[in-house]
Amino acid sequence: MLTRRAALLAGTAFPFIAASSAKAQQPSTLRIAMTLADIPATDGAPDQGTEGIRFMGYTMYDPLVAWDLSSATAPAKLVPGLATKWYQDPADPTKWIFELRQGVKFHDGSDFNADAVIFSIDRALNDKSPVFDRVGRSVLLAALWPLVGYRKIDDYKVELQTKGVDTIMPSLLNRFPISSPANFEKVGRDWQAYRKSPSGTGPWKMKSWTPRERAELERNNDYWNKERLPKSERMVLLPIPDVSTRTAALLSGRVDWIEAPAPDSLDKLRAGGCKIETNAIPHMWPYTLSMLPGAPTADIRVRKALNLAVDRDAMVKLLNGLAAPAVGCVPADHPWFGNPTFKIRYDPTEAKKLLAEAGYGPQKKLKMKVAISTSGSGQMYPLIMNEFIQQQFAEVGVELEFQVMDWNALLNFMRQGAKAPEAASFSAINVSWNTMDPHNAFMRFVDSQQVPPKGSNWGYINDPEFDKLAAEARSTSDPAELDKVLAKINTRMVDEAVFVWFVHDVWPNAISSKVKGYVHPKSWYVDFSPVTVG
Q1: Does residue 8 register a pLDDT over 70?
Q2: Confidence at 22, pLDDT banded by 50, 70, 90
């Protein structure tokens, strides 16, 4: 069983911030301690999940379709990025026309244009192209999988085609950063070399980086969107996966901002003048279950029992309020929630009854193995939280065993799917998920097309009704009607108990009083451009 001591000490093998980093700080330098154990890939295909996009995607690169992250009260919405507009071809609605922004330069000085878009798509989809990148494909495919064709129309217009009518496809492109073809040629057509000398169109440029230690970005003074020109000259990103070490770094003044402070340190941080920033963000923290024949979680009685075995309010209390109970993929007041008949709650008596009906009891305990991470991205406080779940499951007769991995290793494990030989003994994985758009909230989990490596259907859900609803969502353009379809999907997900839902994240950040201009959006992402220090 994991212990609280193990939870607090799990990250101590990672390097602490060198004292010289504090001495080298400039007045307009923002220093951030991430939960990651390494710097995300710098080449326009950021790994390490959505946190990789937050820190090494939207900083140095731009997508075709972007997020408006300027409000702390209104949900983030999709807005034009490197594409100024997009629309379906009236003659063939499977084809989307994207008109591109003109006058944009990459950090290497070359022009952004249609060739750069085709180049970046070829990188992921065209294994006959000299720019094809198998590692980059594993990251970018989640944004590009619906495409069956693409072409340049002219220098500032491209056509993207889907297999059938797909009104949701453009929203996926928020996770598709555009890289520089000229820089790829400059570094010798080598993506590893590109990582050492990256070039995007974003508001920040790479100054220097050392794997597993730090990355230093500097303001891109030629950034095309003057409203998002960074107000700080530099931003330093430091991977510190251990929660206690991150907290100590902020209290000592070695950093200005930390993700996910230790829950029991909030009073001490506030007493030290730090602000604790939280907001309701579209993000869930579940167990994704195997639905393969022979897996104990293929039995709906087991899946419902697991959902009834955990006291979510007690988990939130353990986290000192840094979470919100989850009873589905989205909160119960969300337009996509629907009206499930299975009510997720804490009911250990009913959980034991369902397990007994499924053939489990004191003489035959249910044994489960779950892949979890030490930290990372929206994983929140995975060791502490999973220890709590382990104890709660034990009270209803479920023995939980963990395989603890680095966050990036867990993502790679997820991309292999439950059918992979390495996953044969696993009943579930604990990967947190953003729910910002329809595809990421639902379809990538329940659509049978979305089994790995295309999507996140790790457990191989194969249900005709889910497939029908996913297809209906992709062909629905009216927002109000789309909300109704998505509500049906969430309703069915809960009624079938395809996940074990625990909490929603509030993305807590502890920030020095010297930091000004920060907006904590209702989003998994953040705009660092308005932030100043000192």
Answers
A1: no
A2: very low
Mean pLDDT along residues 244-249:
95
Nearest-10 Cα torsion for 80, 81, 85, 88: -100
- Phi, psi (rounded to 5 degrees) for 27: -55, -30
The phi, psi pair for 105, rounded to 5°, reads -115, 145
Kindly state the helix (H) or strand (E) to which residue 389 belongs, with its residue range: helix 382-395
For the segment 249-291, what is each residue's pLDDT rounded down to a tens digit? 999 999 999 999 999 999 999 999 999 999 989 999 999 999 9
**Cβ neighbours, 10 Å, residue 357:** 12
CA distance 460 to 440: 16
Query: Counting every residue, how long is the chain?
Result: 534
* Amino acid making up residue 78: L
| SS3 of 285-328 | EEEEECCCCCCHHHCHHHHHHHHHCCCHHHHHHHCCCCCEECCC
- CA-closest candidate to residue 123, choices 102, 144, 109: 144
CB 384 within 8 Å of CB 318: yes
Residue with token string 């249609």? 114
Q: What is the radius of gyration, based on Cα positions, of the chain?
A: 23
* Best CA proximity match to 502, nearest among 358, 350, 372, 355: 372
Q: Is the pTM of this model over 0.90?
A: no
Q: Where are the beta strands (DSSP E) in 101-226?
A: 147-154, 157-162, 204-210, 214-219
Half-sphere exposure of 414 (CA within 13 A, CB side): 30
d(CA 29, CA 393): 46
- Residues 174, 65 contacting (CB under 8 angstroms): yes
Q: d(Cα 334, Cα 340) in Å, to the nearest integer?
A: 13
Tokens linked to 83? 């594409």
Q: In whole angstroms, what is the distance from residue 419 CA to residue 426 CA?
A: 10
Question: Can you list the alpha helix ranges (DSSP code H) found in 405-531?
Answer: 407-416, 438, 444-446, 464-474, 479-495
Which pLDDT band, with edges at 50, 70 and 90, does 27 fall under?
Answer: low
207-227 CB burial, b ≥16 within 10 A, e <16: eebeeeebbbbbbbeebbeee
- Cα-to-chain-centroid distance, residue 468: 26
